[in-house]
Amino acid sequence: MVNNMKSLTVLFIAVVLASCSVDVQEPVLPEPSSSIPKLTADVVKGQVLVRFDERVASVLDKAGLTKSGHGNTLSCSGILSVDRILEMLDGYTIERVFPVDSRTEDNARESGLHLWYIVRFDEEIPIDKVASELSMLGEVSRVEYNHRLKRASERKAVPLSVERLQQLKASSGNAFNDPLLSDQWNLVNNGDLRQTKFLKDADVQVEKAWHELDCTGDPSIIVAVLDEGVFVDHPDLKESMWVNEGEIWRSVEDNDGNGYAGDLHGYNFVESTGVISTESRYDTGHGSHVAGVIAAANNNGVGISSIAGGNGSLPGVKIMSCQIFSGAYAGTVLEEVRAIKYAADNGAVILQCSWGYISGAANPYEWTPQYATDQEWETYNVLEKHALDYFIHNAGSPDGVIDGGIAVFAGGNESAPAASYPGAYPDYVAVSATAGDFTPAVYTNYGPGTTIAAPGGDQDYYWDYVDESHKIGEIGCILSTLPYHISETGYGYMEGTSMACPHVSGVAALGLSYAAQLRRHFKAEDFIRLLYETALPIDEYMTGTKYYKKYVIDLLESAPMMQLDLNSFKGKMGYGQVNAFGLLKAVEGAGVEMTFPNLYVTVGEKVTVSPSMYMDGSGFSVKVENEGIASARMDGEVMIVEGLSSGQTAASVTGSRTDRFVITVSENAGGNGWL
Questions:
Q1: Which of 219, 535, 540, 644 is the 20 to 30 Å CA partner of 602?
Q2: 290, 478 contact by CB (below 8 A)
Q3: What is the set of domains in the chain, with CATH numbers?
Q4: pLDDT reading at 301 higher than 50
């Protein structure tokens, strides 16, 4: 196979195009501008990601590639020059990176995502040769390698022991009856877990939000967890999982037409299945741990509390599991970008991303530094940026709580004076980590690119607190949910900016939940600004010296004592520590009042909507001006609208006020507009 590549240098004079099942054409295009990507150790062999020029989109459609995508590969692109090169690879396949979702295909095409394809071939063929030849074609605007992602932390969880679980009882003074809340200093810090190293209220200020503002989350807010799989049957998580009502569990058919079969609680992009996995012996439980911080069920008398997991009688925010890591397998850019678009298309408004690349400012003796500037990351990660742009601009709804999406990333654990990418890019949120006294965790990245801080745990700092009931990795770290094969109790401790990250995602989700309660609408960029403006200032704690033992969990007594100059972190941990109560109070006077949206209906079909999502009141009434086009009636608190004939008609709904809206009926209408 390797010898086949030597022919590429004389390709255009030596090769005859193999037969192709469609009419092919070779448009005359200007000189290509795409550059050859970097070849690094994390590149996946036998694959290249290709973005075709817009002017050959119709050729790709004619070849049937529009209908390709995950699990539906073809062996011909229909573009003469491309197929000439690829035919030399002896058995290649090509498929669209993003499968067609009929509900959002217009958005995908407007964003240019329909032009991205993955080409697979024999791993022995030099990948840089393939990339170089394709990059020379005018029909190809970009070639990238599919490379592996890096988890923000590789450390294993410290399981909560059965003995410790039995010692913990729900306190009558706690906000909820969850017995482990007393160990969750990150949520409610009373300063009494360790007198000298915990500071009262050095937490995310969520207790005041629960009590004073009566907000504990709202199920209309969906957080997509891009991570290892979430243990969907965990007793503290199962009621918080997002449910795709149009899908059937373990179905091999794509029942809702979104391009993925069986995706009841999300999708396993690693194994191309709707079954979320957590049982590998190489899994760390990371995805489940992250999910628990955000939305473990509150006040259910079981396990932990969470930031936005409801109050026992009212449900909290929902978790969508977008699995991009599995066991020893590190996810790739292909799985990542598919997960990002899936999240936007299926209702998520927050991306929870506890992963990233090594900071470009990391110590090269300990790490392999990667991207150091916005331009460098943009240059070599065009597909990744396109997918994130899609989420930022297409998640949410102009009629809902938020228009656009929020991408939250771990800032990195290399102790580097700059955040890692993608989080460091200005459009995203990059989270640094603190200990239980507002001081920076000894591992956290900080400085340029860092936008906000949150509790992340700091086991090396709490090295001196070990007794018969505690061990290293407990007191100083974040307690959350885990699969049972990792912890027999279903709970345990982890640390890192990957643990700080879900605190910000959870607080943002709680803030959007409060906006839903108040029926306030925000642009995503405006909401992020509120998140930053309400952060607690923590620079006053950046003075003096912090002492810790490096590698304490591995070496304990023999671990070397280290010093951290706190002054060097002043002004570099972002805007401050995330502040749930402050954010929710700011929501009260910000954004705009939500109004009842225009509706789109297919002839002969019905749509339902709850007016209470948009205005106060009960006993709503609805009136349609032209009843030959559409009919509308109230069934309790739900409005049912039926399309009768093509056209448009004005309508109104009355509750505490009267809102006018337009009903559009066509042969091919969808909830988000024309398809």
A1: 219
A2: no
A3: 2-144 (no CATH), 160-588 (3.40.50.200), 595-674 (2.60.40.1080)
A4: yes
